Amino acid sequence: MVGAVTHASDTADSASPQTPAVGPDMTPQQYGVGARFTLSVYDSDYVRIILGALEQADRTGLTLETNDISTFVGGTEQRVLEFLRDVIGAAAASGAHISAAILLSRGCPGELACALPAGVPALGAAPVSLAPAGVRARAHWSLYPLLDGGSEGDHMSPIYAAIEDAKTAGIYSGSDHFATRLDGDLAAVLQTAANGWIGVGGVVQHVTTHLTVSLNSPTQIAD
Amino acid sequence: MVGAVTHASDTADSASPQTPAVGPDMTPQQYGVGARFTLSVYDSDYVRIILGALEQADRTGLTLETNDISTFVGGTEQRVLEFLRDVIGAAAASGAHISAAILLSRGCPGELACALPAGVPALGAAPVSLAPAGVRARAHWSLYPLLDGGSEGDHMSPIYAAIEDAKTAGIYSGSDHFATRLDGDLAAVLQTAANGWIGVGGVVQHVTTHLTVSLNSPTQIAD
After folding, report:
1. pLDDT at residue A197, rounded to an integer
2. Of B15, B38, B126, B154, whose CA–CA distance to A178 is shortest?
3. Distance of CA B194 to the CA centre of its chain
4. pTM value?
């Protein structure tokens, strides 16, 4: 990931004096668990639809920071994914064609340098479990085990497992260049991508995943 | 990246018999150079605006594959980025608020397994040079050197160099969680992200970069 070096004392080689001891007691915030998302509404009434969707979503336990480009959501994996399901689902309930660009990240709480001590184990988490949203979504999904921060070993096994989980859930829809297609209830799509990200996160410290989600598209394949 | 294993003979450990000898003669297609993008138009007249933008953009030398989620663009780095500038710029000329979700990828032409021989050198490319689009864009940019495919060494130096290039170009706008902010002419934003991706690509075989671009936002910071 790319970002500013904001403190003179932070370098790629040394841990910031504020870096906590890493272990299972690390909070999601300390471990850099969170999302960025952009909600796009293909409708001239988009301001009302977006504000209404944000209003309806429960933000308990979450940190939200927004600007004109995208919104940051910080918190536990379960809460972050519930929030995304709720905001996107509420926007889709308007009937408008929706696209959501989502980034999930873990293991790199700093900016340019990840600010976790070198050699720290990768920390996974419990898988998320999301109740259905009641709206169909199709998505392109990419999963990125990164060079920064290090790896405990075999990162391909959790990737293969994530694909198998998507097939078992009935939402694996094939692949296109650079991405896997997912198709099903919005909650199932989000859950599959999140749990693939968490699974790889148990082996690789710094993992991101990207989802481009389409709902209510006029060109969507009919069931 | 995540995708289907489509051929029984493709495994993570062996090169497909169709894998060409890798070297500077590899075509962009063989090396897996390309983009996926989703163009979102916050306007009820979005179909006309999107079709019109696609109509205006020169697709010479490019492979395009589209579905309801996102569109694949294959070709040289220069042609792919010119095309993205032209389509997004044309859509923005409508005056509508636009968001574009862009993925650039290199070094993993296969699906689940990258299908380049292990130990193959990372192949960079000449930087792209894009004439201005004449429209302002703000973007969140993330740059991903990946574990798959291998690395020739120091991947952080080209990342730091990419940030410095953004600052020199006057389009570095700070950082937010997980992403760098870029702000300037659409062409300069695309060029900076692409050249950071190409630069890292000279050291790391499999590199992706994501851009979420916002144009004509009603909440955009005024100059």
Report:
1. 96
2. B38
3. 6
4. 0.89
